[in-house]
Amino acid sequence: MVASEPFRFPGLLPENANLCTIEATVTTGLEAVAAEECSKKFETNVMRTRGRIGFDIEIDKVKEVLELKCIDNVSVLIGEVENIKFKETKEECLQQIQDTFTLFDWRKGLLVWSKMTDFDIALSENVEDLSKMISGEKEELSFRVTCTRVGQKHKFQSPDAGKVMGAIVNDTFGWKVDLTAFNIEVLLNICGNYIYIGLSLVKESLHKRNLHYFGRATLRPTISHCMLRLACIESGDVVCDPVCGSGSIVVEGILNWPNAFHLGGDIHDVAYNRTKQNIDALKSQKCLPVNIFHWDATRLPMLDNSIDAIVTDLVIN
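The line above is the sequence of THUMP domain-containing protein; the predicted structure tokens follow.
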């Protein structure tokens, strides 16, 4: 799913050289939780759409986006084009898409990308001739274009749009195409008659963290974090996941709410052992406020009113 309406953030305007606009993907249904986390951390307005949030941030602070716990993938937006009246033939439509290339702020996008990835890229001030904007590293850079398309019936398919955008990127910047071992991923998003482009700022989803041992249905840590935030955990609370599986909720809890005490357990031998392994991998770093049990969730060995919050995933239990 792509954003269905324009972002219209100040960071997309060329006169705001110190601001950039970030788009982050979120598990559908948890956009409000991610927006609240982002707004609290950066004190910025956050736009929510299905499966995504968008916000402005100072370019010098862009690496702090990776500290957000509720989001999965991150990109910097380099521009948007509204109300495109696509023509009748496939060839004309693809030419319209290619013609949008010069409307995007590639210089700002590449500046943000280089800061996030620590890739030393030399950018000139020349924005009139984009082919001269980058010097020195052209032969080292590779890219791919990923197109996501939703909305009205278009005369073209997503691979067609990605191909024409990739062609002009290659012609302009001289980067080589590599669909697997790429440096830069250009994200072309088309929703009806609205187009926006971003550059991916991460190689893989941010949900791949903290866990060392996984099961077939291990809950994403990003979802676990959102669930824990919804529980409004306070210092001194006892938080329990009675069917903890691989321990995703427990691990996310002890790392981000260290002033609470966390309990987890499972009746399944494999799940219990997997959680123990994930906890033990963290305990090598420090003493953690957690206990893991091999128990039956229908007969918890707990006194009444001894648990402040139960946070659990009951999908397959």
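Note on the example: Residues 238 and 309 are 7 Å apart (CA to CA). The longest helix spans residues 158-173.
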